[in-house]
Design brief:
This protein is globular. It is mainly beta. It has a 17-stranded mixed sheet that branches. Strands 8-9 form a two-stranded antiparallel ribbon. It is built from four helices and 19 strands.
Length: about 300
Amino acid sequence: MKLDFVKMNGLGNDFVFVNDMDAAIELTDEQVRWLCDRHFGIGGDGVILVRPSQYDDCAAYMHYINSDGSLAEMCGNGVRCFAKYLVDHKMVDVSAGAFIAETKAGKRPLTFTTNEDGLMEQASIDMGEPILVPADVPTAFEANGTYQETPYAHDVALESPWGTFAFTTVSMGNPHAVCFFDDISQAPDAAFTDPANKSLTTFRLNEVGAFFESHPAFPAKANIEFAVVEEDGIHMRVYERGDGETLACGTGACATNTAAALTGRTSRVNDLILSGGTLHIEWLDNNHVRMTGPAQTSFSGTVEL
């Protein structure tokens, strides 16, 4: 089978896009893993099939598959790239500057800007309302706080081989557990490659993140974020469920912003500074979260499976 593809990325979180508007392509887990392999395949954090939507008011459906072959409910960087794919391929009315995308987590209205060539540069996505009720995230944590009468779990301590870490749980259509280092110098020595120089850079994310991703506290697994609040924004690294560390995570940035505001660490509007760049996140008065950031096309080609 030959596939025409486009390689795209949102702040380095990269994807293999395939036009499947005939809804005729079914990829095996092995094929997805090969496509995402950075040595033998194209390379990417996931594969996104562009499929027709079941809804008349949606331009298309984003079928997102993690690099391990598992199906994901939502991907913030992926949906911005999805928007760019549709805009750049003139699959939507570019002059309108807006459309609705369907995802497995639901409809996502968005607006976008273009350059002089009519290609999308940046998109703002309505990511919907954060899900806070522990059972709905889902997490086994008991609620220990309320937000507008909604129970949620915050700063719940979990043990690990590297020490104790406290998590606040939020779902953005997919589960997230966010750990804030309020004073990273006091974090467990074992969690850093250089205990004398503790920072997000020296943090053992791929070990600690992998441990918590599959922790029994998260029955559907979870995306795991570690964050530090600074004057210029919230700095964070993310271990994505089914992918490992990625340079950026849109839903992770939204969840981290929500968790920071919920716990009184920040206001509701912040720049989220990830390894691949910065996303602007706003938790709006209508309780929806809006994410704004860029998307780029890397290259296109044809591959044979």
